[in-house]
Write a structure and sequence with these properties.
Keywords: Disulfide bond, Signal. By secondary structure, the protein is α+β, with helices and mostly antiparallel strands. It has a single domain, classed as Thaumatin. Helices cover 17% and strands 34% of the residues. The protein is built from five helices and 14 strands. The strands form three sheets. Strands 2, 3, 5, 6, 7, 8 and 13 form a seven-stranded antiparallel β-sheet that branches. The protein starts with 5 loop residues before the first helix and ends with a strand.
């Protein structure tokens, strides 16, 4: 009978699995202006044009998102406010941001050993965005249209373009009455025509959710 203790081997295999399936996100600012990047989980970081923020995201992370904030002003303690995407007046975000903000959303290591990713305009649009893999051949997604410049009058706001749910707060636009309770509208079609990869309203799933193999690394680019 072997005298080898299997526990260290199992622990080593578990550690290897964790390392293999963690994900690195490079958040890149290619805009001509400063973007205060935000991540949940992850916090926040000021990115001047050309700068990159490297994030390591734990395997199994779900309901996660990365977005950009604009026209921010923070003091030495990281307290302040942003015109778009503000998260509780903090440089180091805790929780989600305020609309309008273009979202890169993801869930890692899900069933069938897949990552799920999307770009969402359900909270509106403030910055053009690309969300692409850097270590797999799976498909990248982007929303780089001039949505702020073409935004319908009813949805216009300082620094961005609101989603109609933010403005009107009805089930027609927010889908609050559950699955199948709402459909595409003229407003959601405005977003979808310009950014076919992105969620245009909460139940826009069939054409808006994408997958990559678990363990893939990613790049989120502002102003691609």
């Amino acid at each position: 009978m072997s005298s080898i203790n299997p526990l260290p081997i199992l622990l080593s295999l578990g550690l290897l699995f964790t390392i293999t399936n963690a994900a690195t996100f490079d958040v890149v600012n290619q805009c001509t202006y400063t973007v205060w990047a935000a991540a949940s989980p992850g916090g926040g970081r000021r990115l001047d044009p050309g700068q990159t923020w490297n994030l390591n995201v734990a395997p199994g992370t779900t309901m996660a998102r990365i977005w950009g904030r604009t026209n921010c002003n923070f003091d030495a303690n990281g307290q302040g406010q942003c015109e778009t995407g503000d998260c509780n007046r903090r440089l180091e975000c805790q929780g989600y941001g305020s609309p309008p903000n273009t979202l890169a959303e993801f869930a890692l290591n899900q069933p069938n050993n897949l990552d799920f990713l999307d770009i969402s305009l359900v909270d509106g649009f403030n910055i053009p965005l690309d969300f692409s893999p850097t270590s797999s051949a799976c498909r990248g997604i982007r929303c780089a249209a001039n949505i702020n410049g073409e935004c319908p009058t009813e949805l216009r706001t300082t620094g961005g373009c609101n989603n109609p749910c933010t403005v009107f707060k009805t089930n027609e636009y927010c889908c609050t009455d559950g699955p199948g309770s709402c459909n595409a509208t003229d407003f959601s079609r405005f977003f979808k025509q310009r950014c076919p990869d992105a969620y245009s309203y909460p139940q826009d799933d069939p054409t808006s959710t994408f997958t990559c193999p678990a363990g893939t690394n990613y790049r989120v680019t502002f102003c691609p």
